Amino acid sequence: MKVRCLFTLLYLLFMTPFAFAQNFEFYPNAKYNPAIPTLEQVIGHKWGEKITMHHEVEKYIHQLAEVSKNVRLVKYAETWEGRSLYYMIVASEPNLSRIDEIKSGMQKLADPRQIAVTDADRIISSLPAITWLAYGVHGNEISSTDAALLTAYHLVAAQNDSLASIVLQNSVVVIDPMENPDGRDRFINYFRQTTGRWPDTDQQSAEHRENWPSGRSNHYLFDMNRDWFALTQPETRGRVKAYLEWFPQVFVDLHEMGSNSTYYFAPPADPLNPEMPASQIEMLKKYGRNNAKWFDRMKFDYFTREVFDSFYPGYGEGWPMFHGSVGMTYEQASARGLVVRRDDETTMHYRETVQHHFISSLSTAETTAKNRAEVLRYFYDYRRSAIEEGRTGEIKEFLLVPGSDPNRAAKLANLLQQQGIEVKKAAAAFSNRRVEDYYGGGVQFKNFPAGTFIVSLAQPSKRLAKTLLDKHTPMDDKFIKEQLRREKKKLGTQFYDVTGWSLPLLYDVECYRSRDVSLGNFAVPGAENSNAAIQGGKSQLAYLIPWDTNAAARGLATLQRKSIRVHSTDMEFTLNGRKYPRGTLIIKLKDNPNDLFEQLTEIAKTENLEIIATNSSWVDDGVNFGSGNVAFLQKPKIVLAYNTPASSLSTGWTRYLLEQMYGYPVTLMHTEQLGNADLSRYNVLILPDAFGSYDRALGDGSSFKDWIRNGGTLITYGNATQWLTGEKVGLLATTRELKGGKADKDEKKDKDEKKEETKPDLTKPFDVEKEIQPEKELPIETPGTIVRVALDTEHWLAFGYDGDANVIVNSRNIYTPLKLDKGTNVGLYMPEDKLVLSGFIWDDSKKQLANKAFLLHQNLGDGHIVAFAEDPNTRAFMDGTNLLLLNAIFFGPAH
Ligand SMILES: [Zn+2]
User: Which pTM was predicted?
Assistant: First the structure.
């Protein structure tokens, strides 16, 4: 009987999921202070029993901060959808009471120029080290947030736990439990709606497969784990600001990956960014080893040194590294719900995934606490050696010239300042004897105008400044050789992200690297109040806005939104001795509101925009305002395809660009609805880049053809452009190319061609290398490389440019240029020797891409087809190409 009872008990304990959950042990032999509330007491569910939503997290952390003397809560930002972002400061009471002293100590260590070595010694011997744990930047990587709550709880509630006590005593743990609340709640709402009476273990079931767009991204569908230096999103801006207040020595970004995987932690895979010193890799190993010790003890599987690299500086793991943090990504296999059956025939519960992140969090905090002085010393030395590298290196500084769009240069300078990089601005002109430009000008003497921005590398943020501003960040030769080998065998390459991100190139701001330290009257630029006023005062005839700045486009967007009538010239003209470029906006008093002057004055001020009054249309040269070459700009009414196959990223970037960067409305419409929609209410339709083809959603596009003929402007990027070229659709008279340059035609024709092939010649040896090559293959993917495009500046799509633009190629798409009778090749990739600016490119791709099409224009009736080979607005961090897209939107309907 007894044996049977025991058996029944064991059965109940281990075989029924509920009983198992009751006894699940997150931490060995844990005992907790009953005064500290658990998640269950505040919210109603146990740790890892449910996926906790934002409002529940909010409630719990407020409660925790209220009850525990070891927790302080700080709100650091708000999402687009109005959810608050917080971090918890977890520390001993004495440390919490001297938080200001600790933060100021970190500021001092972060700038070794400001303190004596003895001061540094004193700070290092007296202050705790900072571990920053950030959870769930990808909202559908769910376990991280629940692990964050459990980590905070454990640290403040655990009794007789040596780990918790040393962590509280020797360190401050900053816990950001939820980096992307909008995405997380999007996931959970979907999950709760699709889950039935019992959670389903099948990975194919609806509850494990999100709708488009997934919860990975934020409201504007950005991957915020790429945004750390671009700072386009409020969540990222808030985090960077908070980071710079604290300068944590350790920063961990906790993620999830596919359900069949295990757990990943540092050290990372190759390639490493060359700005990372060897000492940093050693620190990564120290943290990795302690995690491994814990994982081995708990019998959790893990891997290191594979898949996740540390090259791109915009990751949550990467960006802090360039400031001297030990930056790490942790990845847990996701349950993507509450329970999932894995390919290895095991069942993984949500609570286990929470537990893994919880243990790695504690292990990380433990490593910092146990090595407190070493970690602080490391951080101080990192910052000190960064200054030294900058002082003694070949390149001493970067010089950013205000050029034709001073607002854009100022935006770039401000972007650097926002992320802790010191920038100065020249009050007067100066010269430098040894500078080199980004387009191969060689070392030269150059005069720089007042307003030039100077970024000296002799600063503690040198490594970040260098990798963001340098033209090219090289990859390790060994890594490149390995990719060549893998590509040859078709093993798949290991580029994890884009390989080019140089900010001066993306912003198209003239930049010089200097080998001498510039001397002049330089000062830190402050926030500048625009005092732009209308030049020439109130006009009796018209106002002019030269079309060569991003601010001009913002001005136009505002004017169009306010339904003010605007004209634009297709030809240059000279008036009162000044030359006005193609595209210049002409705002006539006639047919416009009486308060036009006041409205324009406001726009000039808000946008820091140059607006010129003229009382005459009598030009010295070129066209008058009444010319047939001056077009009335119809108000754009824009539709953007939303939903599969469109890439949610590409869709979100475009929406963000229009709504937030330029202040213009756009209507989102489900892609599959576009074929039946009443498009007559719109004159611009944008099909973003896509995963796969638009074939299924849009068919042969016949429903759009009349709309275009009647004056519609269809804009496509990337794979959407490929859809236009299909034989059935036939909206663009070009083809995507196969590897080697042949057209990517349909299968049937290929078969016909094959019939004509001759029989193999058996007298010659069989060339196995040649014969095993695939018959039909797209060119190998170019991994996010910045290349140069030559523009046809007579075409309205290229107005505002002086002949070239820098674009990112991040695909396998290569399009043959249009024949002259079919359309215009407004943008062509430059010849091979001038093509590549930054990032990696395969030799074959370079040869094949040269002189091929980037931006194509074709007429259909009264309308236009505007096709980009790539997304011209990748990550919304390419300010230099904004006008190409805005030209299509604002000038298309007028032509
Ligand atoms: Zn992730």
Answer: 0.94
